[in-house]
């Protein structure tokens, strides 16, 4: 029959096109021209050419360059090429709300020829009456939060749909993810420096956005992982082969990509618990053991998460957990270590970024450091307006600007250029290496002239020291999929494993000084 006697053979055109995608540097580059008010680096030119090819082929693409390598300017270059080569085509960009003004500023600075339309409650124009067909623009920008509130976005057929910080759609069941994936577009582009933020499922959701079906449906993908695990083999090699043509990823640490960035040195800054901290920590371990023995299921998960949070707060300072407002600095080993490091930074007249995941202690840290540096610094958290953030960033970047900047990890982890700082301190640890690296890259990025020293605080003998090893394990998942793992979920540990994780090592926890 016909099915038995017919076969499909890839022609020379397809062969050449696939080779071009794999090795864009071997082909004549398409460039944005004088419309781009900047000079692209060699790797950025290759990236723009790759994006243009993927756009012409309508192959979904993920630009996964390391933070600070200029994903924004590469996309603006692509849009300028599209405006020149295919006038009249409209693109939609969806970003976190905090990055709307950043994209607008970058577009006006580097690609002023692009006509922009901002659809957001903070924009001057009203968003209630949207008539896309009657308005002339090249790029429409909105936020993830607005994307499922604006029905008109679903009604329009876009030439290009771009997601910045695409890890925002890592949860396939979220309303935000489902809404974004239902927007019609001829071509889809995802931008993220962390395509594997928490696990391989994050990558599946991004690939499902740019190239639906490539990794199968969620059930098929889950079975593939389960079968690989049952057979004792890693599933990541097969996944890597499938996604490789659709992902372009370059790293700052690769000297063949960029060789004029200074060095970044990461080091653990070990802190000892003060006696009050140790007593409170040990008492909490006993309470946790007692409660875990009495519950199971979803109630157990809630107890585990609450105690993990408590241990992190106690390691920062006992007053953060008790909320007594006292904050006697001698009662915290971390504050003592912070004082030692910042004294040296101050004596060298250098600047520092201090990250914490807890908004409630940002003001405490600011007061503490003001006493060390002899002048106030800046504090940034989710409650600070976007316009004020920009003003703080510009002031901090000035030579005579404040010597330190306290940032909550979520609010300050993206969209900020703070290269005047040559020190980064993670006061407490976010148990996700991708989030920590994004924060560090506020300082370690293009424009940095000094070596960057990253201090990661770890309380000896506590949960923090043990969790540090888990962080390294989680990073291995991302590395194996993207460049060539295994994850432990804390709430899924047995009671014995959890208690071993949080139990104090009495021989190393306290500082006798």
Question: What's a concise summary of this model?
Answer:
By secondary structure, the chain is α/β, with parallel strands linked by helices. It contains 21 helices and 13 strands.
Characterise the protein shown here.
With 513 residues, the chain is an alpha/beta fold. Helices cover 44% and strands 13% of the residues. It has 21 helices and 13 strands. The protein has helices at 2-5, 12-22, 42-57, 71-85, 100-110, 144-147, 151-155, 175-181, 200-210, 218-230, 236-243, 275-292, 297-316, 318-322, 333-347, 362-373, 386-397, 409-412, 433-440, 463-482, 495-502, and strands at 61-63, 91-95, 116-119, 139-143, 158-163, 185-191, 247-248, 264-271, 352-356, 378-380, 404-408, 423-426, 452-459. The strands form 2 sheets. A 7-stranded parallel β-sheet has the order 3-4-2-5-6-1-7. β5 (158-163), α8 and β6 (185-191) form a beta-alpha-beta unit. The longest helix has 20 residues, at 297-316. The chain is globular. The termini are far apart.
What keywords describe this structure?
513 residues, alpha/beta, 7-stranded parallel beta sheet, 6-stranded parallel beta sheet, 13 strands, disordered N terminus
List the SSEs and their pairings.
Blueprint: H1 2-5, H2 12-22, H3 42-57, E1 61-63, H4 71-85, E2 91-95, H5 100-110, E3 116-119, E4 139-143, H6 144-147, H7 151-155, E5 158-163, H8 175-181, E6 185-191, H9 200-210, H10 218-230, H11 236-243, E7 247-248, E8 264-271, H12 275-292, H13 297-316, H14 318-322, H15 333-347, E9 352-356, H16 362-373, E10 378-380, H17 386-397, E11 404-408, H18 409-412, E12 423-426, H19 433-440, E13 452-459, H20 463-482, H21 495-502
Parallel strand pairs: 1-6, 1-7, 2-4, 2-5, 3-4, 5-6, 8-13, 9-11, 9-12, 10-11, 12-13
